[in-house]
Specification:
Layout (H helix, E strand, L loop, with lengths): L1 E6 L4 H12 L7 E7 L15 E2 L10 E4 L3 H13 L3 E4 L28 E3 L3 H17 L1 E10 L6 H16 L32 H14 L5 E8 L6 E9 L5 H9 L4 E3 L11 H4 L5 E8 L6 E8 L3 H17 L10
Parallel strand pairs: 1-2, 1-4, 2-3, 4-5, 5-6, 7-8, 10-11
Antiparallel strand pairs: 7-9, 9-12, 11-12
Helix pairs in contact: 1-8, 3-5
C-alpha cells in the first residue's frame, strides 16, 4: 500500500494532479491518496469525494511520496517536514529548483538525476518542461550551442483567477460592455498579447519566467555552455503554452534528421505537414500529456540551425503529469525512502 499526499490539491494544478493519479492507476485499493490544502480548505469535500486535510505535524506522517503544488512559501516550510517524516517530496514550485542539492527532473530527459535525491525533487517550470522534452534527443545527438526561444504562454499558468479574468473580459467584449479592469495582469489580456510574462526582479530587464528557462535548461541538460535568449509573452489562451524555438547545434543536423530523432523520442508527438497546414495548436494540446512538435525546418540563415514549434498543456505535462511520472520513477528505481533531508 502506497500513501501519496497531494499538497495544494484545491488549486488548478493540484486538481489536475488528482486526475492524473486516478488515470494512471494510483487510486484505492492498492494506494491511498490524501489531498492537503490550507486550513481554510480543511474538511472540504472535492468533486471526486475526497476530503481535504489541513497541513499539521500530526497529519503528515506515514506518506511515501508527497506531491506539492502549493507555492514557494508553503513548499519552503512543509517540504522539509514531509521529507523528515519519511516521504520523498516532488515539488512543483520554484522554491527548490535552483538549489544545487535538489535534482531538477523531467521524466523523459534526466531520470538518472533522481538517484542522488536527498528527500526533495523539483519539477521545472512548465515552459522549460516542454522545451526539454523536445530538445533532449537533439542535444544528445549533436549538442546544442545556442537557443533563442519565444514563448506564448496561456493564462492558466498564472492560476484559476487568471482564467476567470480572461473569461470575464471576453464576455464583456462580446456583449459590447466595458471591459473589467485587470487585477491579475498589468493590462487587459483578452484580445491582447502582453509582451512580458512573469515579473521583473529589481534591477533586471528579464522577467523571472525568462530567467527560469535560462537557468533550468542548463541544469536539466547538464550543460552550462549553452547560450540562451528567451522572451516570454502572455497570450489570451486558457490552456497550453506554445514556443517558437531557434536552435543552433554543435554538429550539423538537417531538419529531416531532427524529425527522425523527434519521432523516435518518448513523450513527443510530431505534427508537421506543411502541405496540409498541419502543426501543433494550443487547443489541440489541451488535456493531453504529450509534447507536440511541428514546423521543423532548416534555418537558412545559419548552416547549423533549426526552427521548431513546441506546444504542450502547461497544467498536465508542464506540471501535474511530470510530477506523477517522477513519483512512478522513484518507486521503480527503489528511491522512495529518503536517506537524508535537504
Amino acid at each position: 500500500m502506497t500513501r501519496i499526499a497531494v499538497v495544494g490539491a484545491t488549486g488548478a494544478v493540484g486538481q489536475v494532479m488528482l486526475e492524473v493519479l486516478d488515470a494512471r492507476g494510483w487510486r484505492a485499493p492498492d494506494h491511498t491518496i490524501v489531498p492537503f490544502a490550507s486550513e481554510r480548505s480543511a474538511g472540504r469535500t472535492l468533486d471526486n469525494g475526497m476530503t481535504v486535510v489541513g497541513l499539521a505535524d500530526d497529519t503528515i506522517e506515514g506518506f511515501d511520496v508527497a506531491i506539492f503544488s502549493a507555492g514557494g512559501a508553503v513548499s519552503g516550510e512543509w517540504a522539509p517536514r514531509f521529507a523528515a517524516a519519511g516521504a520523498v517530496v516532488v515539488d512543483n514550485s520554484s522554491r527548490w529548483r535552483m538549489d544545487p542539492e535538489v535534482p531538477l527532473v523531467v521524466a523523459e530527459v534526466n531520470p538518472q538525476a533522481l538517484d542522488g535525491h536527498r528527500g526533495i525533487v523539483a519539477n521545472p517550470n512548465c515552459s522549460t518542461m516542454q522545451l526539454m522534452v523536445a530538445l533532449k534527443p537533439i542535444h544528445a545527438a549533436v549538442g546544442i550551442e545556442r537557443l533563442v526561444v519565444s514563448t506564448y504562454q496561456s493564462v492558466s499558468g498564472t492560476g484559476v483567477k487568471a482564467v476567470d479574468e480572461l473569461r470575464a473580459q471576453q464576455r464583456a467584449i462580446l456583449a459590447g460592455e466595458p471591459v473589467p479592469e485587470p487585477e491579475v495582469y498589468p493590462a487587459v489580456i483578452a484580445d491582447n498579447v502582453i509582451g512580458a510574462a512573469g515579473n521583473f526582479p529589481e534591477g533586471d530587464d528579464a522577467t523571472d519566467e525568462e530567467r527560469k528557462m535560462m537557468f533550468e535548461t542548463r541544469k536539466i541538460l547538464a550543460d552550462e555552455s549553452i547560450g540562451i535568449s528567451v522572451t516570454c509573452a502572455r497570450v489570451p489562451v486558457p490552456y497550453s503554452h506554445s514556443e517558437s524555438v531557434n536552435l543552433q547545434t554543435r554538429e550539423p543536423l538537417s531538419a529531416a534528421q531532427a524529425r527522425a530523432l523527434l519521432e523516435a523520442a518518448p513523450g513527443l508527438a510530431v505534427v508537421d505537414d506543411p502541405s496540409a497546414h498541419l502543426h501543433p495548436t494550443a487547443r489541440d494540446a489541451a488535456g493531453r500529456d504529450e509534447v507536440f512538435v511541428g514546423r521543423i525546418r532548416d534555418d537558412e540563415s545559419h548552416p547549423r540551425a533549426l526552427n521548431l514549434w513546441v506546444v504542450s498543456d502547461n497544467l498536465r505535462k508542464g506540471a501535474a503529469t511530470n510530477a506523477v511520472q517522477l513519483a512512478e520513477l522513484l518507486h521503480a528505481r527503489g528511491l522512495v525512502c529518503a536517506t537524508s533531508v535537504v
